[in-house]
Amino acid sequence: MFEFSKATIENIGYYVYCLIDSRDKTIFYIGKGCGNRVFAHELEMAEHEKNKRISDIKSSGAQVEKYIIRHGLTEIEAFHLEAALIDLFSSDVWENRKLSNIMGGYHSLDNGMKSVAEIEAFYCAEDITKEDIKHNILVVNINNTYKKAQNVYEATRRSWLLNANKIKNIELVISEYHNIFRAVYKPKIWTTELDEKGRTRWLFEGDDVSKEYPQYVNKNNIFKKKGMSNPIYYLFKE
Q1: Which residues span the domain enclosing 189?
Q2: Does the predicted TM-score (pTM) go above 0.70?
């Protein structure tokens, strides 16, 4: 994609972004901006090192991947975050930059790092229809559990009052956050635990298969009825 839609531009605010060389997945540029700034670099005719890298990437047939690290910022916040990240990634005091954080950053599901395509879908999500449902799906609304876990998988996998007879037929579990399908998991193991009232609650261990089922990700859920309080429900294929 080469630009954001009008709706995304109206909602995204100031943001900080990075450009990634798809050949080796290295971040080679960090910037800030608003509107369609993240797309502008590939249109520039300058002789800076950044532009030479972009030209080399495109000449090789590869892609310049664009990720929004944080959005919904004020201009001053974007300045500070950009500066901090440039300092961080320019530092030569360490070699291994892989983080060991278990949880994502604060509000990372809302304003955290996303590709430009994911940002566009975040603000302009397409409706999912009944015809799109090709699997037996358990939908888990994580509006409340994500606030505690700050980790989509942990917020999704435990622990729910489920129909034991339906569990064996569940093929996929989808995380729903603010009415949008965010992630898809394939359960491998289901186990139970008792809550404080002695009720049996189900939890699963599984794999994130969102990339394998893109037809479900970043889609607007039209099946949830207004006022529905139960955080889990079933969408089974016909």
Answers
A1: 126-235
A2: no
